[in-house]
Design a protein that fits this description.
Layout (H helix, E strand, L loop, with lengths): L2 H10 L12 H4 L3 H24 L6 H12 L14 H11 L2 E21 L2 H4 L6 E21 H7 L24 H13 L14 E16 L2 E5 L7 E23 L22 H28 L5
Antiparallel strand pairs: 1-2, 1-5, 3-5, 4-5
Helix pairs in contact: 3-4, 3-8
Length: 320
Amino acid sequence: MNKNRLIFLLATAGLGGCATHPLPENYSGVNTVDIVRKIRCEARSAIAERAIMFLMRDDAPAKTYKIGEALKKGNLSFKNVNYYDLDMKTAEYVKKYDNSAIAYQFTFNIKENNDINVGLDLLKPLTGGSIGLGISSSNNRERSNIRSFTIVEEFKKLLDSMSDNDCFNVSSGVNVMYPITGSVGLSEVINTFIDLNEMKVLVDKENKDKIPEMAETLNFKTVLSISANPKLDLTTAGRKWQTDLAHVEAKATRTDDHTVQIGLSLPPDKSPSAPRGRDGVAKSTKSAKYRAVQAILNQKDDRRNANDIRVKEFLGLPTY
């Protein structure tokens, strides 16, 4: 085979291992299902720890404290807890959050670029360097994939549907390279939601139904880049010290832009004191799951409105 043809074949094959359908697991080793399971396990752990902490508080009755202790040691599962065994204060606290909901909206935006440029000088080896003829070739490839989906579930169902065994092999540490595959700090988000609710300062966006809502957006971006610029000096047969020069420039870039949006909401207030319309029906009829997803959408609307205001201010247009 002609050596120049061989050089081109080797160069254009240099980055042949790139993915035609970019996915999270290509470099992180963790697929979409595992990422979702890890996030849900982290949320479950935060909710469970908060519930156990309340059951084992200093002023808890002995029976309630023992239930919390059994849950902490793994001798009792949440789905087997009998609310009639809890004191009234604890039972009311637990029931309040049982039907609260958490929504997760995932967006995986992945892009890959693979560029190869090759340059050859075919005449210098034949003319002793007096005449040159340079030719070049390039192979530039780009692929992208956007995967998005939403999951929503109630606190109690999350605790009941997943066991400690389901989350046993899930890493709880932080992954610096691919943050979404490690702990993302959901414990702080969930505890903040509960703390603000207990302070009675959280309301829905429109402040109509006074049902506590909260949304948080977590964004993680990882860029991997590798490049090579080798120079090949090949001795031409029969011409001592004459060389055929091949310049190969290759670059591969992978960008993983991962976003997880979290929405949290308490259930509608169905108590006798809840706000009601003229027909006597409670105004707060939308489920916690609906409200948790809506909290995410509201945050997106807020960002769009904020961007619109900034553009108008930049252009000197009225913002009202």
